[in-house]
Design the sequence.
């Protein structure tokens, strides 16, 4: 017997909308054509609320909450755009740029980078916090792909797609804070990984130039993510 679907009513930016119980604010906003920026979130992957780009204001709450992991509630009043939110999102972007070595002019994803696009949209023309300038390596040992840790923003899309979609769990995260980095297997070179299937899913869900194909030069790496919603749908149990 089919389970009854409960409907919740709420407002987003003053606009009344309906939502199914269990949906997140981000899902409902996108269903209604309301844009909320995200970097770690990608349709088809499990949400983790890591990047904090999707923070929203909710009436009655002093804290800003991530839309990608916050479920809707009856009567909820959500604001997705305000000076406070724009300030926080610019701050998040500045921290991301300061933690690694993002030099767009020589990046394979220049012009096709989500981090770069959001920086342009939010008016990030300079960074007001000190750059860390970490000395990070580039691993080109894989026969087809390269990982450049200088451009990684630790969104963990690669970790999740490898685990949830490909089922290999080649990628993981090592260390904590600004010293964290993605690793293959037990922090070995990518080219020596025995678990990697060379499917390329991790490369194409990466929002920056941290993962790319070896035959790509500056501004040539265009990510293809069309496979993700399809594969997720095929893996969902049939009723």
Sequence:
């Amino acid at each position: 017997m089919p389970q009854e679907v409960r409907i919740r009513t709420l407002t987003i930016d003053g606009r009344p909308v309906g939502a199914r119980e269990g949906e997140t604010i981000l899902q409902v906003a996108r269903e209604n054509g309301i844009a909320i920026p995200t970097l770690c979130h990608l349709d088809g992957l499990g949400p983790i609320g890591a990047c904090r780009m999707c923070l929203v204001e909710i009436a009655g709450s002093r804290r800003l909450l991530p839309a990608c992991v916050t479920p809707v509630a009856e009567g909820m009043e959500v604001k997705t755009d305000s000076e406070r939110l724009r300030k926080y999102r610019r701050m998040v972007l500045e921290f991301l740029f300061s933690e690694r070595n993002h030099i767009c002019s020589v990046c394979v994803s220049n012009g096709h980078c989500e981090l770069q696009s959001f920086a342009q949209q939010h008016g990030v023309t300079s960074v007001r916090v000190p750059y860390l300038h970490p000395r990070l390596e580039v691993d080109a040992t894989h026969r087809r792909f390269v990982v450049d840790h200088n451009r990684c923003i630790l969104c963990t899309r690669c970790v999740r797609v490898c685990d949830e979609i490909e089922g290999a769990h080649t990628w993981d995260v090592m260390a904590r804070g600004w010293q964290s980095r993605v690793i293959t297997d037990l922090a070995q070179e990518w080219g020596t990984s025995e678990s990697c299937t060379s499917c390329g899913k991790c490369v194409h869900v990466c929002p920056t130039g941290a993962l790319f194909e070896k035959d790509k030069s500056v501004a040539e790496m265009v990510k293809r993510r069309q496979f993700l919603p399809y594969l997720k749908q095929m893996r969902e149990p049939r009723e």
About this structure: The helical segments are 25-31, 83-99, 114-121, 157-166, 201-205, 227-235.
